[in-house]
UniProtKB/TrEMBL annotation:
SUPFAM superfamilies, per database record: Composite domain of metallo-dependent hydrolases, Metallo-dependent hydrolases
Domain of life per record: Bacteria
This protein's name: Cytosine deaminase
Residues covered by the Amidohydrolase domain: 106-413
Length: 426
């Protein structure tokens, strides 16, 4: 396969295999699979997407390789990432990781924060991520150093969003809640309000303050909510009830939601039907949930710890998969590659039809932002940003798919070549 010239804008891509979820109704099939597509670019935007026609010599030919729109990383922690070498928790589980992390904060100088966060952004960009949302810990009402230092981390081609992640207890004081929301609102675009909501700090009054302060400052929310397996975790049930009685102008993402898997089926159905009706997005984080839930030294975990993704899909809840922590006290591994997250979910959640249906879980920016006015990714007029997977096939993807070409705004920006011997064998 000849590669596009990184120095020259591309006219487009011929013969690329796009996933079924992305294609318009009526797209032709061959042997049950969508036929490949020709994508024409114009000034870094998509001009057209049409079924493949041979002999379009002005387009770069992908020879049927799988292709996706730019990938989405909806849930990272760039302030904590790459601290594992100096910060290892003494025992397993979420609360021990939180304690260890607090001890690492003494090292969080401006240089330390910027260097680690920039590394995470660079890895994500090389993997094909075009939109990354990071949570940043707040410890009181004053924006932390990381909030400011990470504001202008610039990685070309990647839109960065910041979520102020404060413990729910801070919102118990109505004035403190308002000060945090105001500081976030005055931090510019791509900033959201967040909170850590867990049965260990449950406080419905603080929840009300959190919701009202977000509304007052017209902020969207991304909540760490019910990251536990307690059948009496309150967060999502409370939120569903609140949203049936109050209007909320922004968009809401709920990250984790593990406890949905511990309560009754009826309770889960009730919560999911409200989330679907209110267009609340659920973000599952399979890697850290598998690592941190039901974690006891010397004992094999019995539960998977992951939210009810299939039931949420059936209910029509917008869904995404995120990496969560990467190489810190919460998770020693991680790569900022959404394909690794999807691979983990494939096994943990027993996903099928992974390329044609479930790849949407790592590409759906509209599910993250709540802005679905632009239609599906790669619609005409949207950014010509794609990831191509040479040598992969729709049955085994996302495994064996480390090789890829990343195209931002119609130009090749990153390439990772594949094992030529294996490609010859195939
Ligand atoms: Zn998180």
């Amino acid at each position: 396969m000849n590669l596009p010239d990184p120095a020259t804008p591309m006219n487009g891509i011929a013969n690329a295999r796009l996933p079924a979820w992305l294609l318009p109704a009526g797209w032709p099939l061959q042997a049950g699979e969508p036929v490949t597509a020709d994508l024409r670019f114009d000034a870094g935007k998509i001009a057209s997407v049409t079924p493949y026609q041979p002999d379009q010599n002005d387009l770069w030919n992908a020879h049927g390789a799988l292709a996706l729109p730019g990938l989405t990383e909806p849930h990272a922690h760039l302030d904590k990432t790459f601290t594992l070498h100096r910060s290892r928790p003494p025992k397993p589980g979420l609360l021990a990781a939180i304690e260890t992390l607090h001890q690492d904060r003494q090292h969080w100088t401006a240089d330390d924060l910027r260097q680690r966060a920039a590394k995470g952004m660079a890895w994500a960009a090389a993997n094909g991520v075009t939109h990354l949302r990071t949570h940043i810990d707040w410890f009181d009402v004053v924006p932390p150093l990381a909030w400011r230092e990470l504001a202008d981390i610039d990685q070309p081609g990647v839109t960065l969003e910041r979520v102020a992640l404060a413990p729910l207890s801070i919102f118990a004081d109505e004035h403190a809640a308002d000060r945090i929301a105001r500081a976030v609102a005055e931090s510019g675009e791509h900033c959201l309000l967040g909170g850590f909501i867990h049965s260990s700090n449950w406080d419905p009054t603080a929840m009300t303050h959190l919701m009202r302060s977000a509304s007052r400052w017209q902020l969207s929310l991304d909540l760490h909510i019910d990251e536990e397996l307690s059948p009496v975790a309150h967060g999502l049930s409370w939120l569903a009830h609140y949203l049936t009685e109050n209007t909320f102008s922004g968009h809401i993402c709920c990250s984790h939601g593990c406890a949905l898997a511990s309560g009754s089926e009826q309770q889960a159905r009730d919560v999911l039907s409200v989330l679907a009706a209110q267009r609340v997005t659920l973000i599952a984080l399979p890697m850290t949930n598998l690592l941190l839930q039901d974690a006891v030294t010397g004992r094999t975990p019995r539960q998977r710890g992951i939210t009810l993704l299939k039931e949420a899909q059936t209910a029509g809840v917008p869904l995404l998969l995120g990496c969560d922590n990467v190489q810190d006290a919460f998770c020693p591994a991680g790569s900022y590659d959404p394909l690794d997250t999807l691979t983990c979910a494939l096994f943990a959640l027993q996903l099928d039809n992974v390329f044609d249906r479930q790849s949407r879980l790592i590409c759906d920016v509209a599910a993250l932002t709540g802005d679905d006015q632009g239609g599906l990714p790669l619609a005409p007029g949207s950014d010509a940003s794609l990831v191509i997977f040479p040598g992969s096939d729709s049955l085994t993807w996302p495994l064996h798919s480390a090789a890829r070409l990343v195209i931002h705004h119609g130009r090749l920006t990153h390439q990772r070549t594949w094992n030529q011997e294996l490609s010859h064998e195939s």
